[in-house]
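Researcher: I'm comparing several assemblies side by side, and this is the next one on my list. It has 1164 residues spread over two chains. Same procedure as the others: predict the full complex and return the structure.
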Amino acid sequence: MYRDHNNSELNLSFITKKVTLSGWVQKIRDKGFIIWVDLRDRYGITQLVFDSERTSSALIEQARELGREFVIQVEGEVLERESKNENMSTGDIEVLVEKLTVLNSSETPPFTIEDKTDGGEDLRMKYRYLDIRRNPVKNKLIFRSKVSMAVRNYLSQQDFVEVETPYLIKSTPEGARDFVVPSRMNAGEFYALPQSPQTFKQLLMVGGLDKYFQIVKCFRDEDLRADRQPEFTQIDCEMTFVEQEDILNTFEGLTKHLLKEINGVDVQDFPRMTYDEAMKTYGNDKPDIRFGMKFGELNDVAQHKDFKVFNEAELVVGIAIPGGASYSRKEIDKLIDWVKRPQVGAKGMVYVKFNADGSLKSSVDKFYDETDLKAWAEQTQAQPGDLICVLSGEATATRAQLSALRMEMGNRLGLRKPDEFAPLWVIDFPLLEWDEDTQRYHAMHHPFTSPKVGQIPLLATDPGAVKANAYDLVLNGNEIGGGSIRIHDQKTQAMMFDYLGFTKEEAEAQFGFLMKAFTYGAPPHGGIAFGLDRLVAILGGQESIRDFIAFPKNNSGRDIMIDAPAPIDEEQLKELDLKLRS
Amino acid sequence: MYRDHNNSELNLSFITKKVTLSGWVQKIRDKGFIIWVDLRDRYGITQLVFDSERTSSALIEQARELGREFVIQVEGEVLERESKNENMSTGDIEVLVEKLTVLNSSETPPFTIEDKTDGGEDLRMKYRYLDIRRNPVKNKLIFRSKVSMAVRNYLSQQDFVEVETPYLIKSTPEGARDFVVPSRMNAGEFYALPQSPQTFKQLLMVGGLDKYFQIVKCFRDEDLRADRQPEFTQIDCEMTFVEQEDILNTFEGLTKHLLKEINGVDVQDFPRMTYDEAMKTYGNDKPDIRFGMKFGELNDVAQHKDFKVFNEAELVVGIAIPGGASYSRKEIDKLIDWVKRPQVGAKGMVYVKFNADGSLKSSVDKFYDETDLKAWAEQTQAQPGDLICVLSGEATATRAQLSALRMEMGNRLGLRKPDEFAPLWVIDFPLLEWDEDTQRYHAMHHPFTSPKVGQIPLLATDPGAVKANAYDLVLNGNEIGGGSIRIHDQKTQAMMFDYLGFTKEEAEAQFGFLMKAFTYGAPPHGGIAFGLDRLVAILGGQESIRDFIAFPKNNSGRDIMIDAPAPIDEEQLKELDLKLRS
């Protein structure tokens, strides 16, 4: 038996007890006549003591040979400490070591195993097993496990059945790129790894399972943007005999439960906002509503003068930055440079200082008088002391630019508090979105999303205006979940595929099984999927998902710890009936 | 809202209430003046009634147009039934329909959606979504979900952290064949899908997570035997600072919990048997100990006469089949044919009838007298009325043959009761096993298993005799879990790789990250993995795993419902830098 207690358990009630502990050497303080060793495990730290009055000199010598991250086992007696440490659960005691066994030695770690480490990102990833010993990473993994369990317990109590759907499925050219898996037993053929269990969960509803969930890995072979992983985890859910309202209520319940159980936070019923309203008010379909700076559209009050830039713009729109009137000319110039960066892409920025004394001063005083600027202040809900920032141009692009500025200012002004939670349903998403590359409409959500009742005829006349029974759950400016009510009759589904540019043959080859299933009594159904990596990060008060994943991949999709991907044997390729082109 | 109750909820307390129900038409009985419809959902069946006295003729006409598996919604009043059905939760009531909406029609299903169906295996797999509507399949999936939740809850309560390990890892030629995934971003390189998260869970232990578990899909590209799936699910576990005893206790606890929670069965502490003893007593490392028929070795009492077959055999061994003395000559001949089938492979079988009157009659009376046969009866613990079956030959093969006969007779005699549970730890597995093909020793468990303390020197002299700290959990003749204490120091691991025929370069290329990790304070650790598919099947009283998997693949690794694997576009292949050979 390696231990009878872990390193967070001992306290004054154990005084004089003999104990056996195991763990890692976190720290050694050698004062000559006395040596303290901090012994660490997952649960905490216990202070060990070797002292020349009570410890044999042989044992003291042994202790002197210890190094950081050595794995040791000790037997000893629990003593009350002279100087207690209230910040740790074992801070009242120490263990006077009577026997020391080195279970394994350690080379000097490539970075310090402390809460704040000197290890850079690459080094931490290469030695991820050492990084995981650090509290910040370890705690995030334990936190993730807790969130997963809370999700499972809640949904199970609501009669959801967790069903495992297959990982080796069929590739479909629709949507993002699939990872494929060559089949040896079926030469020349490939499986694909699922981008989501979408069709399988729909088939489970056709199969009458009624309420399904699964916490499941999904795969997308995309060029990785920062903080995207080729494999990611979804909480995937589907329900039968439901309307949108049923789904929103069920998963609002889940989210409230998580906020309460994990964060101890009670939240009110989630506000709802249409997609159109979100775009108009925040320039963004996943607005962070923890703070204001709502968009004020200025076309009516800014296109009546001789300022050509505004007059020619599809949209003139501004936000009021709280307290921004005090920014220096230099600070404002920097802000203008910021919105003109290629990542944001604005051509320029007009600003109005709404001074504390009520006076208004703008960068376009040549064109607009105080009455005009007052009207702008009203539209942007500016208060004295604010800085009104105005962008203009093509509507969609301008909204995106101003949204970027709004989020940036939210961050800079500390308005995006990690311990404040502002969930929001965004509903009534468009069914389709125009794709410039292919010059046709694509399904905004996926081809199984049902249009709103009665809107199918609009597909012929104004496809972009058709709204879907689709919804996103937004938390603190991040989409944490999204879903829709699905099409459940074969005719509408076939029409949809036709509309999205599938030939009959393609639709049949790729989704024939689903359309066939729809002819055998498919019930109305719908669902939602949450991005678990993101959800866990946000509940944990972070925006980066990487440390909530035990072994993440880097931006080239590599695991630098195990060095994967890697070449495989020619023999393996042959068995798969494959060869490399280059 | 599609329903306010499900189809198992309504009872006498709802009489006169107005309800809304949805579901599938299970059955229609049209008596002319009255029509009954059984409405089904996941939860149960509710009887609907349309009757000419109380229902409008238009509604009756509508009901007449319903067909099996139509999806309908009804509104109506709950009435007490005249003839009650005590076998169903809703058997006291029926719903007089006032409004009927057809939500979806259905073509005639290709097989009947009943507990006993007329659908063959292939048809059921092709239309798996219809098969899942049947209680036997649906209930197995719900059962699986319950088992998974019970596992998770138990392990979480024991402080295990569920950690998701990556699916896109590195291929290693050791062990079974990997499924590989070509990387587009790293042309010419491949990921592999994990055969198990073995190295990752060990790294989590090096990382100090202390107790890990995961319910996780694993992948093996093997030629499929019956009831094997290319993707399968493991309950994967690992613990730190443990000896074999700690692991056995922990997972005996889990298994007892499952038997109690899922099956309502209390079991005693699990017996333990060494591998050698299991092979000797049952000819099998996963013996079904629900029944006897233990092996009796007969070399000492059968090799002293002139019977050459026995005298030349390495092993003469028999079992006593209860009640077998009454078998006719024809029945016994059939049994002999059975052991001579190529799947079993015995050359012949000697038998002894131990008659009810105590007399003994054998097929080798020419060579052996009653005293000899008495001794055989003693060795095989035969009782009057039994049939002693004796096989002989090379020891390992003969044991396997007799084990096959024993299991067959256990089945025929109804001794393998599905509701009886006999768990057993088999311990002290050999570290290595001889592989005839490659003419060298392979790791019996995997190369990370630690030899028993002090047995390393034996590797040089008698490798086959080295025992490992490896153990299997056997339930009713099936291995449901297996694991080992791992090597945790770099030197032993390097020696092990060397011993298994890895060059230094190969070991470094494939497992360098693990051996590196071992130099930074790797703690003693060990673990176990359960096959969830098998475990669930056995807890469910079945031996076939297929119906406990929502969408299984067939023996060629195909999903015949979605028709996968399938060819992919030339374009996709090009992006992956691949081409087909043939």
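Model: For your comparison table: The first strand of chain A starts at residue 18 and ends at 30.
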